[in-house]
Amino acid sequence: MTCVLPRLAAGAAAMTLLGGCGGPDVGKVLAPFRAELDRLAHEAEAEQRIAVSGLDDWLFFGPELRHVGLDGFRAPSPGAPPATNRTEAEAGPVPAVLDAHRRFAAQDVELLLVPIPPKSVIFPEKVSGALTIPIPVPRLDPALQALYDELRAGGVEVLDLTEHFIRERFHAEGPLYCRTDTHWSGSGCTTAAAAIAADVRARPWYAELDTESFGASWYSTSIRGDLTGPGGVPAGREELRLRGVVRRTDGGPTPVAPDPQSAILLLGDSHALVFHAGGGLHAAGAGLPDQLAFELGLPVDVAAAPGASPTAALEDLLGRLQANPDYWSRKRLVIWCFAARAFSEHDWRPASPTS
Hints:
Structural class: alpha/beta
Order of helices and strands: EHEEHHEHEHEHEEHEEEEHEHEH
Helix content: 25-40%
Number of strands: 14
Number of helices: 10
């Protein structure tokens, strides 16, 4: 039997990175992949651009490419804000996440960490014509895998969506990421929500919760991606499919609002708000909180800080505890969901609650 592997880039400049019939040799793929992403990220930074033009009209966020090009996340990248009063033992995301895990456990609240895989890891063949990526796409994020293993060793539950996203990357309703935006797409939200909900439903206390059924339907819309604005690459509007979620009432369908009384809290960055909060986040009623409500049969509480570091969102949440000591008595689970690039693109420190 002859093994034929597809070549996804052509030309003298392309680097052939295909393995044999036993699968790709990731060791040979990884170094050129990282080097090319690092080159593109530094080129964009030098030209004061946030966006990098890939193949087939795909755009990528320069800081994300820089993040994927790293081989570890012990300290923030050069683009991250400087640390203040931070000892070497406190440096990096692991101590900060372990500290959050301990804080939640002290309130008898579980933590599920859900980092959102980088777009360039799920669609690496769309980044550059200088790369030839084997199909099926291999995992090209060993630094993230090592970080997740270290967090798990410290007792943190990590739901790694990467392999699932690679399998489902070309969803029936469209790719899992926007082509011209830094965020996942509507199908990315639904795929993530289904995986998270499967984990939540397996927890013993879930059966004790009151649930209901919500309506959902797919529809088409268009967005102007955030990678096409200032510092980006000019492009037209992008067509997307979103799944709107509603509560059926006597007065007609209504959006499913977040519930501060919910046993489940979604803590996150702008990925927790895109397609949910409306305005500059493209749409309402079709984001991760809405999809979780549909999958779980109950609204979730939401605490999100778009554009801020994960610890900033956490500090805001801890401020709620100061303002309302009974807040945690209703909570069973915190789902902490943010872009994995934050592990290197933000300064990490144990959180101090803000009042």
